């Protein structure tokens, strides 16, 4: 979670570039520079998700949360320009995207966000960001602590789509709730199918990411490490790995998975207070562990959320892009080749 009081003390060690269309955005002086800095949202960016346009990848979009009582999901094109927004939402926290959700017999792509102040998740069709959830879906019902924060969508190989949702606080062993999404009624609904996830009790769990091809979910137990479980609700609740327990300055935050093919690639985790990303092999190590490959210093300040794609988006992103939230109400878009160069240098 961001520490707004640190912005002022960071300015002295930052340089500034113009953000797309408005104001000045702080950049870490010694970090790699973003290819694109987005236009500012009104309040507080938190988490991005990349939607790949199936007809023309160069027209793909980034959906980002603007986290406030008067917030919304914002839509950015690949130049960082705001090209759309959702209806007003009450503190949308994190967002994720899934393809081919069956709504009343027809397939649509969806963005799902946590709406923290209403204790709901919200479901929108893409790319038009129209609500398809009949006003919202309650989560963590009956719990003393609800406050949904993190979310990741898992698409099983049979096409079933699940939302794995985290909250501000909760009990170890059932901190995360997994919901099966359904659209047969003409609106998106959800049913709880699983409660799982160890929790240290030290901070919170916000960053969650699913690897569909490997059928696993990762989440950050902030200040402690990254935990791995099966994403399939029928495959048990055993913790499969617990890594990244050293090397982080404080908070473990946003998780992005860059896939070089169906099985290989990288897991990037925000080392928030260090303004960098820790890079792990997507396959882990030979003993089932996940040794650190390298730490990439970025220009993001206090990054909460991130996403990545290896799809050729054309233009400035022929090998895909890495997107990271930064203080200043903005998102940074990085040409993946710049990240890749940093990783390759560390492996020589």
UniProtKB/TrEMBL annotation:
Residues 1-24 form the signal peptide. One of its GO terms (molecular function) is inositol hexakisphosphate 3-phosphatase activity. The keyword Signal applies. SUPFAM superfamilies: Thermostable phytase (3-phytase). Residues 17-343 form the BPP domain. It comes from the Bacteria. Keywords: Signal. InterPro entries: 6-blade_b-propeller_TolB-like (IPR011042), B-propeller_Phytase (IPR003431). It holds the Pfam family Phytase. This is Phytase.
């Amino acid at each position: 979670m961001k520490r707004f009081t640190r912005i002022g003390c960071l300015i002295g060690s930052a340089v500034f570039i113009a953000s797309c269309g408005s104001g000045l955005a702080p950049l870490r002086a010694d970090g790699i520079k973003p290819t694109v800095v987005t236009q500012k949202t009104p309040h507080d960016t938190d988490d991005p998700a990349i939607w790949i346009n199936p007809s023309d990848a160069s027209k793909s979009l980034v959906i980002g949360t603007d986290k406030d009582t008067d917030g919304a999901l914002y839509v950015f094109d690949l130049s960082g320009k705001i090209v759309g927004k959702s209806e007003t939402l009450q503190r949308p926290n994190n967002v994720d995207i899934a393809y081919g959700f069956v709504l009343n017999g027809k397939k649509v792509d969806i963005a799902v966000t946590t709406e923290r102040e209403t204790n709901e998740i919200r479901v929108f069709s893409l790319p038009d960001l129209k609500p398809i959830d009949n006003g919202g879906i309650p989560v963590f019902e009956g719990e003393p602590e609800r406050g949904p924060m993190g979310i990741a969508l898992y698409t099983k190989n049979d096409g079933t789509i699940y939302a794995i949702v985290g909250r501000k606080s909760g009990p170890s062993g059932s901190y995360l709730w997994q919901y099966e999404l359904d659209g047969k009624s003409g609106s998106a609904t959800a049913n709880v199918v699983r409660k799982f996830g160890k929790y240290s009790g030290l901070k919170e769990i916000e960053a969650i990411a699913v690897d569909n091809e490997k059928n696993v979910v990762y989440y950050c137990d902030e200040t402690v490490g990254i935990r791995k479980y099966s994403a399939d609700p029928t495959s048990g609740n055993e913790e499969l790995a617990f890594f990244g327990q050293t090397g982080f300055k404080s908070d473990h935050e946003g998780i992005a998975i860059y896939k070089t093919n169906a099985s290989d690639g990288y897991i990037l985790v925000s080392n928030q207070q260090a303004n960098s990303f820790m890079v792990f092999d997507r396959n882990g190590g030979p003993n089932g562990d996940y040794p650190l490959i390298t730490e990439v210093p970025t220009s993001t300040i206090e990054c909460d959320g991130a996403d990545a794609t290896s799809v050729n988006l054309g233009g400035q992103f022929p090998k895909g892009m890495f997107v990271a939230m930064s203080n200043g109400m903005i998102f940074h878009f990085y040409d993946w080749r710049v990240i890749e160069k940093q990783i390759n240098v560390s492996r020589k």
